């Protein structure tokens, strides 16, 4: 009961909040978060426990895709409530023994936070007592170069993450920021984006007849094309 109260007493961070600050020991040395990552996008994510199969598949996938995240100027930082030596032994086992979906000899080079006190996990709402009071759920925080939380996703212990979606999510946020647009359902680079509403049916009709590339389906729903090349340029920028 005491654990549940202590978790509930800490307000969960929200989209638009500054990422809660902390200093932690990791497999790559001590980090000061988020200050150390100023100027970069970051995915801070938690997993329930070392030496578990779903987590192993996720870490192998994260590590295999690290270059793709780096292309987006996005760093990876992992966390679980296990200790440092457990982390090191688990990551060594992954590299030396585990093969999954064609991935093998996978070396995890991004930092994995030791959080045996659950201090960081509690700050980020990663401990969900209804799921487990002793393990972090699979949380994902997308944090921008100014240290602001831009997206939050939670998965239950039993469900592995979709990594194509994480790459798409960072790309979509960066595109929306750069062009002052929004991205529609299932948006992928090369698809049309949503532009601010025309404001009235008359203006929308004018836009439909214009040559600026904007299509207004009605006064509240206007789109325009954006090339894959432009999205890639935006995605690879800071």
Write the layout of secondary structure elements.
Layout: H1 2-8, E1 22-26, E2 29-33, E3 41-46, H2 53-64, H3 66-71, E4 74-80, H4 84-97, E5 112-114, H5 119-123, E6 138-143, E7 149-155, H6 163-179, E8 193-195, H7 201-209, E9 215-218, E10 221-224, H8 228-235
Parallel strand pairs: 3-4, 4-5
Antiparallel strand pairs: 1-2, 3-6, 6-7, 8-10, 9-10
Q: Average pLDDT across residues?
A: 90
Instruction: Describe the sheet with the most strands.
Output: 5 strands, mixed
Total discrete domains: 2
| Structural class based on helices, strands and sheet pairing | alpha+beta
Relative helix content: 25-40%
Q: Supply the CATH superfamily name of the largest domain.
A: Glutaredoxin
Q: Helix-strand pattern, N to C? A: HEEEHHEHEHEEHEHEEH
Strands side by side in the biggest sheet:
5-4-3-6-7
Strand content: 15-25%
Radius of gyration: 20 Å
Number of helices: 8
Features:
single chain; 238 residues; alpha+beta; Glutaredoxin; Antioxidant, Horf6, Chain A, domain 2; five-stranded mixed sheet; globular
Descriptive report:
A hairpin with a 5-residue loop joins strand 6 (about 140-145) and strand 7 (about 150-155). It contains eight helices and ten strands. The longest helix is centred in the C-terminal third of the chain and has 17 residues, at about 165-180. It folds into two domains: about 1-160, Glutaredoxin (3-Layer(aba) Sandwich); about 175-235, Antioxidant, Horf6, Chain A, domain2 (Antioxidant, Horf6, Chain A, domain 2). Mean pLDDT is about 90; it is low at about 1-5. With about 240 residues, the chain is α+β, with helices and mostly antiparallel strands. Helices cover about 35% and strands about 20% of the residues.
